[in-house]
Amino acid sequence: MTVIDGKALAERVQSELKTVVASMPIQPGLVAILVGDDPASKIYVSGKEKDAAKIGIKSEIVRLPETITEVELLETVEKYNQDSNWHGIIVQLPLPKHINEERVLMKISPEKDVDGFHPTNMGLLWSGHPLMLPSTPAGIMEMLKAYNVEIEGKNALVIGRSNIVGKPIAQLLLMANATVTIAHSRTKNLLELVKNADILVVAIGQDRFIKSGDVKPGAVVIDVGMNRDAAGKLHGDVDFNSVKDVASLITPVPGGVGLMTRTMLMKQTVEAAKRALNV
Ligand SMILES: Nc1nc2c(c(=O)[nH]1)N[C@@H](CN(C=O)c1ccc(C(=O)N[C@@H](CCC(=O)O)C(=O)O)cc1)CN2
After folding, report:
1. Per UniProt, where does NADP(+) bind (predicted)?
2. What is the distance between the alpha carbons of residues 83 and 125, in angstroms, rounded to a whole number?
3. pLDDT tens figures, 123-151
4. Domains of the chain, first to last
5. Which of 250, 258, 134, 135 is nearest to 201 (CA)?
6. Is position 218 annotated in a ligand binding site?
7. Among this protein's residues, is 198 annotated catalytic?
8. So what's the ipTM on this one?
9. Is 54 helix (H, G, I), strand (E, B) or coil?
């Protein structure tokens, strides 16, 4: 069994990006819009700011109060859509309940939508011609590539059907010629499907849901879960300690997919800036 080292891979990609940015005639710019006081969101956004600084990407965090109206938030997004100094815009999720997330994500110009959540970018991905990829699925594909995982012809099972992870990773695996199944909370024969999966991506948000006896020996197991226990310790959706003895390759939590999520956002920002320059 090999444990995928998300930290080492993220550092490698970041260092490559730093070299690319240093050679660019302009500095790529990323704006992160943070609404409210969600503690986890605050940490994620400042992590993005730190990553950007390390790579040489200019960044700005726009902090807005929880009470902001949807119209005001839409106006803020539009302001950055119109400003050519900024190549990437993200709105940190989740948003407060009174704001319609979909309307806000739709407001981001697809060329600046470095999260890849705009319906245009989702449609381009599903048509097989992606422009911007959501960061978590892009990071997973980067990991599979770095560890030379053969995807073509393999049975891939994605547990979870969110627009952020489940659906896009399923499409990326399909584009890499895997035979893909998407399972979810209403799937009836879930453990049967898990047992048959050569590549298993788990994004269901249930603490250590997948156990060693569930997994096909030699499977590649990618854990997207981030669940905190009562003591504040982070666990994935996969019971790492037992599944690691059955899998051929496995991602840890923390130190796996999350770190690549942050890095791929930087990569998309650099790509967006390059496209703005037509290079
Ligand atoms: N606009 C967006 N909002 C959200 C996204 C997103 O991709 N775009 N994803 C998540 C949060 N997220 C990034 O924003 C994110 C979550 C976790 C990590 C990470 O590095 N995880 C570490 C563990 C961190 C810890 O100890 O708490 C790991 O897995 O090793 C990065 C980014 C929701 N919102």
Report:
1. 160-162
2. 26
3. 999 999 999 999 999 999 999 999 999 99
4. 25-109 (3.40.50.10860), 135-258 (3.40.50.720)
5. 250
6. no
7. no
8. 0.92
9. helix
